[in-house]
Design a protein that fits this description.
The protein has about 350 residues and is of the alpha+beta class. It contains 4 helices and 22 strands. The chain has 4 domains: about 60 residues, conserved putative lor/sdh protein from methanococcus maripaludis s2 fold; about 90 residues, Beta Barrel (Elongation Factor Tu (Ef-tu), domain 3), CATH 2.40.30; about 60 residues, OB fold (Dihydrolipoamide Acetyltransferase, E2P) (Beta Barrel), CATH 2.40.50; about 80 residues, Orthogonal Bundle (Helix Hairpins), CATH 1.10.287. Helix content is about 30%, strand content about 35%. A 6-stranded antiparallel sheet has the order 2-17-21-20-19-18, with no helix packed on it. Strands 3-12-15-14-13-16 form a 6-stranded antiparallel barrel. The chain has a 4-stranded antiparallel sheet with strand order 4-11-9-6, with no helix packed on it. The longest helix has about 35 residues. The radius of gyration is 45 Å and the shape is elongated.
Length: about 350
């Protein structure tokens, strides 16, 4: 029993001695590298502080947007005056020429007023003609001394001016009613196709009835309208090209060049309206929705940084510039993305270095 206890004590002393020996060796090793960080920590620090220079270039990029094809010209035709539909000469889908008669209205009171005003014009014309002849005779007679009193000549001149004014008023009134009678003829303002016909013979139209008689559209030329978001509006150049497809013709690609823009940002959509004219639409009918690809180019050089350099935090979006060995936070906004690079806007400089791997903790 005593021998067993002695063996246990010897074993414990041996274990403790070995532990002290190993501890001493470890202290000696760490003492040789006192004040130096472990190698793996140094590598991590170097990786965190790795910097890059921003890429500055005037980039080209493609933007996909929805668009809409519209007739180059489209108009709703309303009657100028109240009347009944007497005749209809075209129907939906009909091709018409400029000036072609589409429908004829009738309004008896307008025709009667026109006849009355023409008669009044003729009456005042005769009165004015007589006054002119009377004044001319008196004026010739007044050339002889004492033949015509000066007062009589002045009276004739005054009557001539009064009759002239009455004739001009009657002439203007007759022209106005004649114009109203011409409004009974509904004609096409340009070449196109009848898109809608909303009337029938015998219907009362005009004044309180604000339904369009016809809707006329020009299909020989189309407009492609695209709403370009505000942040891309400055990249539209005069020669901007567009490629597009429509649902009904998925196997065909169409192209066009920028024709005009709205010049100002629309307040409701915060977008710039761009229009592309299509002179030969072919199978395109107008009214289709289009899937558009715009080829845009920045008006000036912009900066690009790796996506890892950009920090998205609750406090905002920023990058870290290395100044005097310290990371400085610079607010930025992002633009387009290309491969591993992202377009950034802010107070950046091409001569400054930025952390390749940014983080909010730094």
């Amino acid at each position: 029993m005593k021998q067993t206890n002695i063996l246990k004590q010897v074993f414990l002393i041996s274990v403790v001695t070995a532990a002290f020996f190993l501890a001493g060796c470890g202290n000696e090793t760490s003492g040789e590298k006192a004040g130096t960080a472990p190698k793996d920590i140094q590598q991590n620090q170097e990786k965190v502080m790795e910097t890059v220079s921003p890429l500055s270039e005037r980039s080209e990029y493609t933007l996909s947007l929805p668009g809409e094809l519209r007739p180059y010209e489209q108009v709703s035709l309303y009657p100028k005056i109240k009347g009944f539909v007497r005749e209809i000469y075209v129907d939906r889908g009909a091709a018409v020429k400029k000036g072609q008669l589409l429908a004829l209205l009738e309004a008896p009171e307008v025709m009667q007023s026109s006849e009355s005003d023409r008669a009044a014009q003729q009456k005042f014309r005769e009165i004015y003609s007589y006054s002119r002849q009377s004044y001319d005779r008196l004026h010739r007679a007044s050339q002889s001394q004492g033949a015509v009193a000066a007062l009589e000549l002045e009276k004739a001149w005054s009557k001539l001016k009064s009759d002239s004014a009455a004739y001009l008023a009657a002439k203007a009134s007759a022209a106005a009613t004649a114009q109203l009678s011409r409004y009974l003829r509904i004609t096409a303002p340009f070449d196109g196709h009848i898109v809608e016909r909303n009337i029938s013979a015998g219907a009362l139209v005009g004044e309180n009835n604000q339904t369009a008689l016809f809707v006329l559209a020009q299909r020989s030329k189309l407009r492609l309208q695209v709403a370009v978001p505000e942040k891309h509006s400055s990249s539209l150049a005069k020669d901007t090209r567009v490629m597009f497809t429509v649902n009904g013709l998925q196997d065909r690609n169409f192209s066009a060049t920028l024709s005009r823009t709205s010049t100002t940002i629309q307040q409701d959509t915060r977008a710039l309206i761009a229009e592309f004219d299509i002179d030969k639409p072919g199978q395109l009918q107008g009214g289709e929705y289009a899937q558009v690809k715009l080829k845009l180019r920045r008006p000036e050089n912009t900066f690009w940084l790796p996506a890892s350099s950009i920090v998205q935090a609750q406090s905002g979006t920023f990058v870290l510039a290395l100044r005097d060995g310290r990371p400085i936070r610079l607010p930025v906004t992002t633009g387009n993305k290309r491969d591993l690079l992202t377009e950034v806007f802010g107070e950046l400089s091409a001569d400054e270095q930025y952390l390749k791997n940014g983080s909010e903790e730094l």
